[in-house]
Amino acid sequence: MGQQKHGGHGHGHGGHGGHGHSHSHGPAAPVSRHLRRVIAAVLIPFAAAVVVGLAVLWPGSAPDHERTGVGFDRQTESAVVTGVERIDCEKANAGQVPPTGDTSTPLGRKEVAEQKGLCGKARIEVTTGKNKGRTFTEIVHPDAPRQLSQDQEVIVAYAPDAPRELQYAVIDVKRTLPMALLAGIFALAVVLVGRMRGVMALIALVASFAVLTLFILPAILEGSNPLIVAVVGASAIMLIALYLCHGLTARTSVAVLGTLISLLLIGLLGSVFIGWAALSGNTDDNTGLIHGLYPNIDMSGLLLAGVIIGSLGVLDDVTVTQTSAVWELHQADPRMGPRALYRAGIRIGRDHIASVVNTLVLAYAGAALPLLLLFSIAQSSVGAVAGSEVVATEIVRTLIGSIGLVASVPVTTALAALVVSADRPAAGGPGSPAPAPTAVPGPGGGPVPGATAGTAPGATAGTGAWAGAASPTGGFPPGRPPMGDVPGQQPPPARSGLRPGLGGKGRRRKR
After folding, report:
1. pLDDT tens column, 214-245
2. Following DSSP, what letter does each residue of 385-448 receive, concatenated?
3. Residues in Cβ contact with 511 at an 8 Å cutoff, skipping those fewer than 6 apart
4. Is the pLDDT of residue 166 over 70?
5. Cβ(153)–Cβ(179) under 8 Å?
6. Phi/psi of residue 87, each to 5°?
7. Is 115 left (phi over 0), alpha (psi -120 to 50) or beta?
8. Residue 64, Cα to own-chain centre: how many angstroms?
9. Residues with Cβ < 8 Å from 99, sequence gap 6 or more?
10. Cα separations (Å) of 417 from 254, 330, 438?
11. 49: pLDDT confidence band, cut at 50, 70 and 90?
12. What does the DSSP 8-state code read for residue 68?
């Protein structure tokens, strides 16, 4: 893999702080050439397989079909409301009283209520399509969830086979401006805070949507296996997003491997439990419409593909965080072995697991909140609710994704600990043993007794106070606080001849 360059903030010794060294989650120390070859030997075949999969499965255009005029499968055009007047709902014939006059049912009471009050009579002008300029009227009930106002832009459905007066109907409000403004604010916030990383993240986001819309969706519509398409597409998104955002480095490569193993586990568990629970994937009007238009699509496979793609975004976050944590732990103390690194990294990962699992469950519960309200209104038992296919689908989706996320923490932590511990950088590089200590000249030109370069008088290199300059990582050894932090212990006075920046003290001239 490409060798990382050492950033100026990675191992700097300055005189502005108590220990002029800072760790960042930016570029890590470059790994040895041998280790880069080992990682490349694993990832290059994987990347080649993804490219071959994209080439083999790449679709043409989505197959044509005759529009049904149902749901999203309708011809739509843009229009604008030119005026709204208030009229009596009974005169507008907006609702009809049930023929039997029975108002004991909710539907009957609703229709009776619609006869009372003032309705809105909206005049609407079509602004696109072959019938541009044509006008029609729309009656809006006073209790309708969407009210219309003058000069409001709307989306209308067009049914060419219907009678002329019924060919157009308002189906939604046009939201182009607020959505575009919100997207602009999001992009600006990402760039201002993330700077170059934010720019690369936005590019990766565009690339991910391109893979989704140009490859995954058309390939599934063309009849390819949804699971294989999802695995190839998710792998392509993972490679593009991780390497664009975090660089072509060994650290990123370990995160890629951890993500790949977790995705394979999610795919295996999904195949087993979606089939075992007999989940068809056809649970609402939209999936029913897809199945009606394209009967050859495997709907259960489509469900599994959704689980894999939905888990990928959170997996990236977990694996990158765990890999960075292990790398930083190693830089803080290069003497830590793989076992110690794993134990320290997994303690960080446990906090991540708790928050991520809770996030997933709440995200799915929020998306299904109207459905859960319906079950609550019906006073259904917990067992009946959980056993229904529409809820069981969400439960299986959540649990499979959560298992993959939980498994990604120990897997990625172990991989990162093994890789960073097996590294053997060249002599003089970051992480290599520190050079032999040299004597610090005293005021008269002779050495200060017991002092070496990078230490205070009376201390040895890398063991006493202010040992950061001699330490390969610039930090204090575990369990050793700096001089002056122990109660009753004072740092020695600065001497002439000590270089500025050692211990955060400057040169003091003798008067």
Report:
1. 999 888 888 888 889 999 999 999 999 999 88
2. HHHSHHHHHHHHHHHHHHHHHHHHHHHHHHHHHHHHHH--PPTTSTTSPPPPP-EEE-TTSSEE
3. none
4. yes
5. no
6. -135, 165
7. alpha
8. 33
9. none
10. 10, 8, 33
11. very high
12. -
Which ranges constitute the DSSP H helices of 212-337? 217-221, 226-246, 250-276, 285-293, 299-332
At 321, list the tokens.
Answer: 């965080």
Confidence label for 62 from pLDDT (cuts 50, 70 and 90): low
- Whether the Cβ atoms of residue 311 and residue 401 lie closer than 8 Å to each other: yes
pLDDT of residue 278: 86
Q: Which pLDDT score is estimated for 424?
A: 57
CA 175, CA 155: separation in Å to the nearest integer? Answer: 10
List, as one string, the DSSP characters of 340-358: HHHHHHHHHHHHHHHHHHH
What is the structure's pLDDT at 110?
Answer: 60
Give residue 113's pLDDT: 58
Are 472 and 480 in contact by the 8 Å Cβ rule? The answer is no
Q: Could you give the count of Cα atoms lying within 13 Å of 336 in the half-sphere of its Cβ?
A: 24
DSSP SS3 for 382: helix
Task: Give me 150's structure tokens.
Answer: 């003058």
Asked if 331 contacts 431 with a C-beta cutoff of 8 angstroms, the reply is: yes
Residue 258 structure tokens: 């951890």
Cα separation, 174 vs 76, in Å, equals: 12
Which pLDDT tens digit goes with each residue over 96-153? 544 455 555 665 656 665 566 778 888 999 998 888 989 998 888 887 788 888 889 9
Is the pLDDT score of 470 beyond 60? no
The residues pairing with 155 across neighbouring beta strands, listed in sequence order, are 78, 172
Cα three-residue angle 250-256-262, rounded to 5 degrees: 140
Q: How far apart are CA 13 and CA 2, in angstroms?
A: 26
What is the arithmetic mean of pLDDT over 308-317?
A: 85
SS3 of 335, please?
Answer: coil
Q: How much is the pLDDT for 451?
A: 45
This model's pTM is above 0.85: no
Tokens standing for 485?
């932090």
| pLDDT above 90 for 185 | yes
Euclidean distance between CA atoms 421 and 341, whole angstroms: 9
Paired tokens of 137: 């009227």
Structure-derived torsion over alpha carbons of residues 492, 493, 499, 502, reported in degrees to the nearest 10: 40
CB 453 within 8 A of CB 444: no
Phi/psi of residue 349, nearest 5 degrees: -65, -30
Count, residues in the chain: 511
Q: How far apart are CA 210 and CA 191, in angstroms?
A: 21
Name which of 77-91, 136-150, 367-381 the model is least confident about.
367-381
In b/e form, how buried is each residue of 374-404, taking b as 16+ CB within 10 angstroms?
ebeeeeeeeeebeeeeebbbbbbbbebbbbb
Integer Cα distance of 400 and 270 in angstroms:
6
Which of 316, 356, 322, 318 is closest to 342 using CA atoms?
322
Return the residue matching tokens 């296996």. Answer: 225
